[in-house]
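C-alpha cells as discussed.
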C-alpha cells in the first residue's frame, strides 16, 4: 500500500488556488501543508524524529529538527500491517531557496495508508536524507476515522514529546496560524493566534501543522488535555490525544 499527502489533496480538489482574497476566507481545494515553528518546542537533537496521529487517525505528523523556513514534505508512505514506512524529502526548489539557520521542530503531514488500524500501536520507519529513525505511535482507542476516508476538516492535536504537541488546522495554505501567546497548566491550555483582517490569502482549504510547546513539567500530557483556540478564525476547543 502506498499513500502520501498528495492523494488527500487530489480528493479535495484544487480550485482557485491562485485567487487572492482578504481575510483568509477558505474554500474548496488544497495546497502543500505548512508548519508554524516554535523554536523551544519538544525535541532539540537534529537527528531525532518524533510523530503523532491526527485527524481521528486518518493522518500523521512527522516531527524533525531543522530550519523553520524549510519544512520537509512527505514523499512516499507504504504500510505492511501496522508498520508504516515514511520517506521525507525537501520541498521542490528548496535547494536554491535560502533557509534560516535556526534549529526548530517542523511538522510534516501525511495520510495513513488504507488498512492501518489507528486504534492499535503503529511503528513508523522514517527516512529523511541521511537520517533514519523508528517512531512508536500509541494506538488511539478513541479514533473515529479510518485511513482512506474523507476528512471532516476539524482541528485535531497530538502530543509528540513532553509538553510539545502538533496542532492540525484547515484553511488557506498561504496563511498558516501564527501563535501570539500560549498558556497552560495541568490538563488545560490556551493558544491565542494573531488575527490580521488585512492579510491576503489564497482561497484554498489545506492542512496546516502548528507546533506548540508548553515546556517540560508545565502541563499534564499523560491525561486528557483540553486545548482552547482563540483568534485567527480558529476559536474552539480541541481534545489533545
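Sequence:
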Amino acid at each position: 500500500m502506498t499513500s502520501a499527502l498528495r492523494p488527500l489533496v487530489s480528493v479535495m480538489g484544487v480550485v482557485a488556488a491562485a485567487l487572492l482574497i482578504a481575510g483568509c476566507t477558505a474554500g474548496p481545494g488544497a495546497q502543500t501543508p505548512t508548519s508554524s515553528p516554535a523554536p523551544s518546542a519538544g525535541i532539540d537533537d537534529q537527528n531525532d524524529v518524533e510523530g503523532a496521529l491526527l485527524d481521528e487517525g486518518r493522518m500523521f505528523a512527522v516531527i524533525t529538527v531543522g530550519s523553520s523556513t524549510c519544512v520537509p514534505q512527505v514523499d512516499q508512505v507504504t504500510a505492511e500491517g501496522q508498520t508504516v514506512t515514511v520517506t521525507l524529502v525537501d520541498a521542490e526548489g528548496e535547494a536554491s531557496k535560502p533557509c534560516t539557520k535556526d534549529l526548530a521542530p517542523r511538522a510534516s503531514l501525511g495520510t495513513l495508508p488504507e488498512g492501518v488500524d489507528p486504534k492499535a500501536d503503529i511503528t513508523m520507519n522514517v527516512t529523511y536524507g541521511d537520517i533514519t529513525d523508528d517512531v512508536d505511535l500509541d494506538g488511539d482507542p478513541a479514533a473515529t476515522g479510518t485511513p482512506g476516508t474523507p476528512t471532516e476538516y476539524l482541528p485535531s492535536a497530538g502530543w509528540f514529546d513532553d509538553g510539545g504537541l502538533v496542532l492540525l488546522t484547515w484553511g488557506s495554505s498561504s496563511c498558516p496560524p501564527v501563535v501570539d501567546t500560549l498558556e497552560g497548566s495541568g490538563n488545560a491550555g490556551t493558544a491565542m493566534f494573531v488575527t490580521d483582517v488585512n492579510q491576503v490569502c489564497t482561497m484554498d482549504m489545506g492542512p496546516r501543522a502548528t507546533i506548540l510547546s508548553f515546556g517540560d513539567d508545565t502541563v499534564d500530557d499523560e491525561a486528557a488535555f483540553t486545548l482552547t483556540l482563540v483568534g485567527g478564525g480558529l476559536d474552539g476547543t480541541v481534545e489533545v490525544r
